[in-house]
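[Structure tokenization] protein backbone as discrete codes
[Encoding] learned vocabulary of local backbone shapes
[Protein] chain in single-letter code, fold in tokens
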Amino acid sequence: MTNHAEALARIRDDLRAWKPPIDGQGFWSPEGGLDWTWPVLLRRLSRLRHLTQRQLAEKAGMVQSHVAKAESGADVRWSTIVRLVEALDCCLSLRVRQNAPFG
């Protein structure tokens, strides 16, 4: 029988090796896993929570048009992103990656 840490490591490695079909809206990150653009991620999380734009807007304390704007990829305020993420019962983290090598 393996210990808890070994089991978690095996699951993590299996998930990194598994690559679901990409629908043209996500991309593989060099660190492993799949990254989504903000609008795609917002739509997918909303669907997973079974929330319409109107319902998400109500939970976030904003109007539906702000959710539609965020889902369309338009520039939105950081505070809007935070409110939407919290309304989806998620937490927000920020990762900075370089687009091109330094030097």
Remarks:
- The domain at 27-87 is CATH 1.10.260.40 (434 Repressor (Amino-terminal Domain)).
- The longest strand covers residues 26-28.
- DSSP finds five helices and two strands in the chain.
